[in-house]
Amino acid sequence: MAWPSGAVDSGAAAPELIRAEPGPYKVKPIDPGGLDVAGESETAFETSAGQDTDAQLDLSKTAETPIAPPKVKPEAAPATEPAPAKVEAKPEPAPTGGKGSVIQLGAFANQAQAERAWSALSARFPSIAAMNKMIIPFSGGIRLRASASSPAEAKQACQALKVAGENCFVAN
To answer: How far, in Å, CA of 144 to CA of 133, rounded?
Structure first.
């Protein structure tokens, strides 16, 4: 038999057996040490499991200046329930710019969810607040879109949203 170094096994000696120390070989240390990270949380794991943790984004890293959310005035509770108001069909605002000047902000199960999303996004992003809101029904629910004055403005607003961790795309 040839060995890697080119030497030949002469068979003169049997290989030596190395025995393990008696007792357990895996013992938990008294002071395990390790890195202690201040503020460490399970937010990423909870969110991936579907839990809503109301996490806040650091908008100081975005190109736009964040604005304060609008203050909500508490409404007085009526003594009796008013008659339900008639729902009026509002005409859809037409896109103000050319092709590619509309961004889709999300798709929702109902109009109330789309309205809440618009309120949240327009409060956080002045560029979105300056656009025309478009709520478009489709077979699967409601699409929330915003129309910009130009394709460049739509692209810039969508990029700002993506930087802040939101989803959007320029719709044609």
So the answer is: 7
